[in-house]
Amino acid sequence: MQDSNSTVSRVPARVPLHTEPMGIFASFRAGRRNVLELIPEVATRLPILSGRTGRRWHMVMDPEALRHILRDRVEDYPKSLVTKLILGPAIGQSLFVAEGEHWKWQRRAAAPVFTHRNVAALGPVMTAAAERASARIAEATGRAADLYAEMVAATFEVISDVTFSGGEGFDRAAVHRAIEGYIAQTARVSLLDIIGAPAWVPRPHRLAGRRGVAELKRVADQTIGQRRQAGASPVPDLLDLLLAAEDPTTGRRLTTDELRDNLLTFIVAGHETTALALAWALYLCAFDPDVQAAARDEAQAVLGDRAATAADLPALPHTRAIVDEAMRLYPPAAFLARTAQVQDSLLGREVKPGDTVILPIYALHRHHALWDRPDSFDPGRFADPKAVNRFAYIPFGDGPRICIGASFAIQEAVIILSTLLARFCFAPVAGREPKPVMILTLRPEGGVWLNVSRA
User: Fold this and answer.
1) Which of 102, 109, 111, 142 lies in disulfide reach of 245, CB 3.0 to 4.6 Å?
2) Strands, E, within 202-348: which ranges?
């Protein structure tokens, strides 16, 4: 698709990408404010950019080159040192950061946990959370509410219930506070990251979050031990499924450390991704009342006065398209990085071992050569998902390391969004437009404040 913008139109909130070269200190300041400010505006128009800021880097926005990195040569482009420094202390060698054979066997063991059947079986938990979120939002009728905070609450309820059903010894509020504190203290870019300092050089601000991580691990270990003693729940939850998981090739099962690290990964990623997709989707629906009205008509026709279920998803294509478009404009993981391990070539550019290869998903999803009116909100682009270039739209990554919980997140988002749109109308609050800021994920700084009324 080619960009057909001939006039300047009103577009939803976006990140001001830089137009002048940045040195080491300017990059450091930008990265501390908002990681996406490291992306130059020209990245939304070119297939690749290369440069040096401490170490050599290549920024890739070409779908075929991304296929090469994420699918064809995935082992030659492991996750970057910075990613591992930020996440390793919290989630160890879990699926998200492990490499090579250690990653492969964990993926083989965990994959059956996220089959369509198992994800659909978790639908009632999502439906119950949608009902509770609806009840809370109903109390805000006639005034403004922070829908981002509401969506975080709803999705954390879901991931808590599907991970630790019963919740014995599991202080949800304390775990949520620990997660937020860890992200706030450790996820910001360090000057040492910018200049490419080795892993053994301490990043002092990241040491501060270790106490909260230790408490997270203690709670998870305690819960795993209790479940092993008590046995599986009547309806197996995520912890039960992981306890029973084994590598179909070797029969190996996850150790307690591996179980804990993967559970913490699913807790953090499982609620954060969906909460962000929902918050941005509600903001965009308030931004475009016509889109919101069409989604409401669809939801009311399918649901009546009940909450959505997993079985309703095929009948809610417009709602699903809104979720997809929200993740195009505001991908939760909007800026990824890999470290080249071997000599290679990307679009004619020489890539050397040790080079940083940046995947600016935010720029890819707004690229003028790939999307018509790239900064505009238009769920119609996803009316036929097969028409979308697969490697031009990668909110969950792609290739062998595509997010294992993608179908879980989509099911949850459509259930909650359709339930809310069937029951409420959302409108912008003057002067309270959210600001897209990425630290670890692309969050709406200041929240998503919307006026709430009954549908």
Assistant:
1) 109
2) 336-339, 344-346
Query: Distance between CA atoms of 352 and 384, rounded to whole angstroms?
Result: 39
Residue 171 CB partners (closer than 8 Å, separation 6+): 219
Q: How far is CA 83 from CA 32, 91, 188, 189, in A?
A: 15, 11, 11, 10
Residue 11 lies in a domain: no
Query: Is 296 exposed, middle or buried, given 0-12, 13-18 or 19+ CB atoms closer than 10 A?
Result: buried
Of residues 114, 266, 335, 396, which has the active-site annotation? 396
With respect to residue 18, please indicate whether it lies within any of the assigned structural domains. Answer: no
Q: From CA 395, how far away is CA 453, in angstroms rounded?
A: 31
Residues making up the chain, counted from first to last: 455
Is residue 333 within 8 Å of residue 441, measured between CB atoms? yes
pLDDT tens per residue, range 203-259: 555 555 666 677 778 878 888 888 888 887 777 788 888 888 888 888 888 888 888
The runs of H, that is alpha helices, within 62-209 are 63-67, 81-91, 100-110, 116-121, 123-138, 147-163, 172-186, 191-194, 204-207
The rounded radius of gyration (Å) of the Cα atoms in the chain is: 22
Which residue out of 163, 403, 408, 425 is catalytically annotated? 403
The Cα–Cα gap between 137 and 134 comes to 5
Helix (H) or strand (E) holding 382: none
CATH of the domain at 439: 1.10.630.10
Question: If DSSP codes are grouped into helix, strand and coil, which group holds residue 168?
Answer: coil
Specify whether the CB–CB gap between 15 and 34 falls below 8 A. Answer: yes
| pLDDT tens track for 338-391 | 999 999 999 999 999 999 999 999 999 999 999 999 999 999 999 998 899 999
Q: Is residue 6 part of a domain?
A: no
Q: Where are the alpha helices (DSSP H) in 164-255?
A: 172-186, 191-194, 204-207, 210-230, 238-244
Calculate the average pLDDT of the chain.
Answer: 87
The verdict on residue 10 lying in a domain is: no
In sequence order, which residues have a C-beta less than 8 Å from that of residue 89 and are 6 or more positions away? 186, 206, 209, 210, 213
Strand ranges, E, within 194-312: none
Q: For this structure, is 273 an active site residue?
A: yes
pTM: 0.90
| Catalytic residue check, 170 | no
Please identify which of the residues 273, 309, 319, 339 carries the catalytic annotation. Answer: 273
**Whole-number Å distance between alpha carbons of 147 and 109:** 36
Least confident piece of the model among 7-21, 59-73, 135-149, 332-346: 7-21
Mapping DSSP to helix (H, G, I), strand (E, B) and coil, where does residue 187 land? Answer: coil
Per the structure, how many domains does the chain have? 1
